[in-house]
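Bumping with the actual sequence this time:
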Amino acid sequence: MKKASILVIYSLLVFAIVSCQKDEPVLPIARPPIETPIDTIGTFKATPYFIQVPFSLPAFPEQILNPLTVEGVSLGRKLFFDKILSRGEKQSCGSCHNQLFGFTDNGRQFSLGGDGQVGLRNSMPLFNLAYVEKFAKTNHRFFWDGSIPDLENHVLAPITNPLEMDETLPNVINKLRNSPIYPALFKKAFGSDSITTKMLMHAIAQFERTILSGGNRFDYYRAGLETLSPQEKRGLDVFLSEEKGDCFHCHAVGPLTTDFSFRHNGHQTPDRGLGAITNNSEDNGKFRVASLSNLVFTAPYMHDGRLNTLEEVVEFYNSGAIRVPPADPVITKHSNGLQLTTEEKADLVAFLKTMTDTALVTNVNFKP
């Protein structure tokens, strides 16, 4: 009896000590079995997907309406690279979002449709999209002009755009239902082989949310685990200086390198951007501030892809941008340009290259 009492007391002490210990951050996101919220019958449960978040990124946003599952991500990955989603089955999502180019379109200024149609804007990279939803300040989130509020609806726009995949959703769903493989895959992911547009949206969005990029040299430098060269440090100083590069106001110093806002960067193109979505003249010419991560993979640059090199980008902000409204105040306050020296421009380019995540273009989980 005495031994039993001692054992109980000892167990309680161990529990109390463990309970008081400081929680350590855990990178994989663990979730209980998920009852899939769409097109399910009975007690169907999908397998939770345990996502590995690079150490430098914020906590992965919890997906309530479309939680990640092993079956859903696998299906979304297959769909992302399948030309069945396009008219004539000539191209897939992956055709214009190539992993080797940071999920942009193979170095092209404008993407081409299946029949050679020329798009209107440069293909945006697709990494860290889950954080756009988390940190964007308005419902204007996806695409250069903020026309789409969430990643699920983001999936549909290229499929139905006549300049891109040029297909109709009824045709896509019909092709998937008649496929010898997809009904079984949809049933594994969602508990039903009655394929719907909602299932299609959810599956591809799940895969796209897993495409994470972090842990580049600058991330390690910020964590005190890596050093920068003297030139790269000088470039960082230019980046952070209000009198010099003044880059940090729009491209926050952190793992995501954007403030998720929409701004007019002093370009002189007629594209109305956000203004065409909001019908507010004050938004004309505003585009989403893009991430600076992986720039070595994602050329050409800007919403219209008119700048081919990082040197051209730096020179644009140094001397090429217009310095009067409707340009953003961050641009107009430098009324005479940035006046960077040749050395300072080279230093800034060297620093920008430190934000390169080579794992992004080699990760087998992102391949077809």
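The tokens above came from a reply further down the thread. Residues 70-212 form a domain with the Cytochrome Bc1 Complex; Chain D, domain 2 fold (CATH 1.10.760.10).
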